Amino acid sequence: MISDYDPNDHHKLQGDLSRLYRWPKENNMNAASKVPSKSVWKTVPKSDDYQTPELSDELLRYIERTSLVKFSNEDGIKQLQDAIEFASQIGDVDTDGVEPLYSLHETEVAYLREDEVTEGDRREELLSQAAISVEELYFSAPPGNVPLDQTGDLGKTK
Q1: CA neighbor of 81 nearest in space, from 48, 120, 55
Q2: If you ran DSSP here, which 8-state letter would residue 52 be given?
Q3: What CA dihedral angle connects 146, 147, 148 and 151, to 10 degrees?
Q4: How far is CA 113 from the centre of its chain?
Q5: Alpha carbon distance 12, 1 (integer Å)
Q6: Alpha-helix runs per DSSP H in the chain
Q7: 79-98 tens-digit pLDDT
Q8: Best CA proximity match to 109, nearest among 22, 14, 25, 24
Q9: What SS3 state is found at 69?
Q10: pLDDT tens digits, residue range 1-33?
Q11: Could you tell me if residue 152 is left (phi over 0), alpha (psi between -120 and 50 degrees) or otherwise beta?
């Protein structure tokens, strides 16, 4: 175990840690060499065929209703159009030759520790801070976002 670490026994520590972390081989540093040593910033040029989206009143009402954000003035609509334009740039990025990301969750095993209570039961102290509690066991949360009135054809649910 790591808790039995002897400062003079480096090989034992490396053996224990190798179960938790896969160390790169000294002669195989290809993966590390592909990572830039400094931040790389590139601006994406605007596409010539991009048109600023025209947002109809009906579409604005639908976006307001589903996002629970009010675009009540020209500044709000302009900000929404700018956000759409910014997000549309992702389609112009050249991804040829770019490999998909690698995730440790797909192939590696996460070693978990057992949960141990360290400070005891503090339920009463925590529930005393709640505005409303149910059966003195649970917090009662306020209701979530309430959607605006649904009008128009775009927001119909079945």
Answers
A1: 55
A2: P
A3: -150
A4: 25
A5: 9
A6: 10-18, 30-33, 57-67, 74-88, 104-107, 123-127
A7: 888 888 888 888 777 888 88
A8: 22
A9: coil
A10: 445 555 555 555 555 555 555 545 554 445 566
A11: left
CB 53 within 8 A of CB 81: yes
d(CA 66, CA 103): 32
Q: The tokens of 43 are what?
A: 């601006």
Q: What is the DSSP string of 130-153?
A: -SSEETTTEE-PPP---PPP--SS
Residues 76 and 55 sit within 8 Å (Cβ to Cβ): no
Contact 151, 61 (CB under 8 A): yes
Please determine, for residue 99, whether its predicted confidence score (pLDDT) is greater than 80: yes
Helix (H, G, I), strand (E, B) or coil at 119: coil
Contact between 65 and 148 under an 8 Å Cβ cutoff? The reply is yes
